Amino acid sequence: MTNTLTAMIDQHAEQRDAFIERMLQSASGLFNLFSVYIGDRLGYYRALGAGEWVTSTELATRTQTHERYAREWLEQQTVAAILEVADEREDALWRRYRLPPGHREVLAEPESLNYLAPLAQIAVGAVYPIHALLDAYRNGGGVPYGDYGVDLREGQAGMNRNLFLYELGQQHLPAIADVHARLQSDPPARIADIGCGVGWSSIGMALAYPNVKVDGFDLDEPSIEEAWGYARQYGLTDRLTFHARDAGSLEVLNGRYDLVTAFECVHDLGNPVGVLRTMRRLAGDRGAVIVMDERVGDEFTAQGNEVEWMMYGWSILHCLPVGMAEHQPSAATGTVMRTDTLRGYAREAGFQDVEVLPIDNFFFRFYRLR
Ligand SMILES: C[S@@+](CC[C@H](N)C(=O)[O-])C[C@H]1O[C@@H](n2cnc3c(N)ncnc32)[C@H](O)[C@@H]1O
User: Fold this and answer.
1) pLDDT band at residue 66 under the 50/70/90 scheme
2) Whose CA is nearest to atom 16 of ligand 1?
3) Which residue of 27, 178, 287, 344 sits 20 to 30 Å from the alpha carbon of 96, by its own alpha carbon?
4) Distance from residue 66's CA to the centre of ligand 1 (Å)
5) Which tens digit of pLDDT belongs to each residue from 119-129?
6) Which domains does the chain have, with CATH numbers?
7) What is the pLDDT of residue 140?
8) Mutational pocket test of ligand 1: of 265, 282, 336, the residue with most ligand atoms within 8 Å of the beta carbon
9) Is the pLDDT of residue 2 over 80?
């Protein structure tokens, strides 16, 4: 064999082995996410309490689950380095486990900005209609949002909830001086929150600005029902109203709003130009239009920017097929909506300019449409 041929075979083997390693690590990550889903949904992480050592029987009793399953899950969580074991040599039924404090914040403290259990829930939701998804790839159709079910809806809501409750009205909107001033002044400002999902953005804005009145609009009826439930929980039904409506058809409300928002939803719309046109009308001459969407790179690169690995993941499983199902013909945007794509939609909808706002967020970019 020549030296060149030997070098080519070595390079192939090295590349193959590195890829096998990556595939196995991915499988490990996948199992971790599924195991977090089980722990979150069954209340295991919450039941593990604040750093206390717990046996499988105690965990099963506290959560009303079956001891044998709880034991297997505890062992799996330990091997996955999510939980700690007090003494691995103890008899299986006497062995004690705990959730380390740093992990507790991520898995069992729903009010923390570092809470990530919803990531497991949205991941499970994203593959729920997997066979319909494959059909859509084959025949060019879409998969309706509702077909992704409760895990996608709740996981999506959980991922953004704390941003909306603890950052949007405290840091992000105050960074837009004229909007912040208007939301604080009289007569009380009116906000239209387009694609509001289960309503956390509307609730966050209503809590941060005690005068404002918010109308949330979303196409998905279960989301709107859930939003009403949270509005009642927070005692905000006098200032919050939720509507199960297509945001592309709200003409009767023209000129009525001081602020019109669309949080992480423009890329999902089958007809983004139609909805942006509606948003422009709702804001009239004086209102502001703010869009928050994924902070992806300006153009496609082989490596992608630091969030694109995730955004492309959501796109191939959920956002693109949902957009393809919603409107015909569909804009078929997908999760990776670049700034120039939004600019194109906005111009078509009658806006003159799209300004990228100097708001710092790892996952999201904020735009003001003028
Ligand atoms: C990715 S979710 C974002 C939900 C919420 N804004 C958040 O950040 O958690 C996109 C939302 O857009 C809604 N949506 C899609 N098309 C819509 C339309 N034409 N009119 C109103 N809402 C729509 C979906 O039902 C879904 O709740």
Assistant:
1) very high
2) 269
3) 27
4) 38
5) 999 999 999 99
6) 3-109 (1.10.10.10), 123-369 (3.40.50.150)
7) 96
8) 265
9) no
